[in-house]
Amino acid sequence: MSDPVIGVLALQGDVREHLAALAAAGAVARTVRRPEELAEADGLVIPGGESTTMSKLAALFGMLEPLRSRVRAGMPVYGTCAGLIMLAEKIIDPRSGQETIGGIDMIVRRNAFGRQNESFEAAVEVAGVGGGPVEGVFIRAPWVESVGAEVQVLAEYGGHVVAVRQGNALATSFHPELTGDHRLHRFFTDMVRAAG
To answer: What is the pLDDT along the chain (196 residues), one digit of tens a residue?
Structure first.
């Protein structure tokens, strides 16, 4: 699979930046809003944004069950920030009615690094991504409180887990799509090719 089709869940969040990063990483990038668009994708990025809003819109658009089904079936998926929350099996202090897709055996804490005005950038060493640390943009970022035995921790920052992988599911607390460094998107695109 030379140019995999990777969708970006386009219900809410920083969709355009992910589309550009995926294209730069050698993927055919498309927006996904409906089950039939999801069916045409080889992999999916769940962007940063507001996880509660994303969860409600996914339910409204009839996307929650198709997303869960594809992720359970092994479709490669990459969640950033709110996307990490969407891939968690459990959220500490979820908002009322907030649901997740699941796919990574982890418990996450929303807004763990602080509010919007406490956002920051930091260099993060990510296992499996060569070329030195990636610049992580943390915006109302979650962190991973705990992981199951099958989950590989790829990065920590300040003593907290901020990047994980379980099988074909990848997640980061931070936003690599906002930096112009496309190594994590290339890493994910290679995961999609390998799952081919």
So the answer is: 679 999 999 999 999 999 999 999 999 999 999 999 999 999 999 999 999 999 999 999 999 999 999 999 999 999 999 999 999 999 998 887 789 999 999 999 998 888 888 899 999 999 999 999 999 999 999 999 999 999 999 999 999 999 999 999 999 999 999 999 999 999 999 999 999 8
**Close Cβ partners of 73 (under 8 Å, ≥ 6 residues apart):** none
Contacts 24+ apart (CB under 8 A), 30-38: 30/5, 30/6, 31/7, 32/7, 32/8, 33/9, 33/61, 33/63, 34/61, 34/62, 34/63, 35/62, 35/63, 35/66, 37/7, 38/7, 38/63, 38/66, 38/67, 38/70
Kind of pairing, strands 134-138 and 143-147? unpaired
Specify whether the CB–CB gap between 64 and 32 falls below 8 A: no
Q: One-letter amino acid identity for 51?
A: S
Q: Which two tokens stand for residue 107?
A: 């418990």
The Cα–Cα gap between 49 and 11 comes to 10
Catalytic residues: 81, 175, 177
Q: Name the nearest CA neighbour of 187 among 178, 47, 114, 177.
A: 177
Judge whether 136 and 162 are in contact, CB under 8 Å: yes
- Backbone torsions φ then ψ of 153, nearest 5 degrees: -80, 120
* DSSP secondary structure code for residue 53 in this structure: H
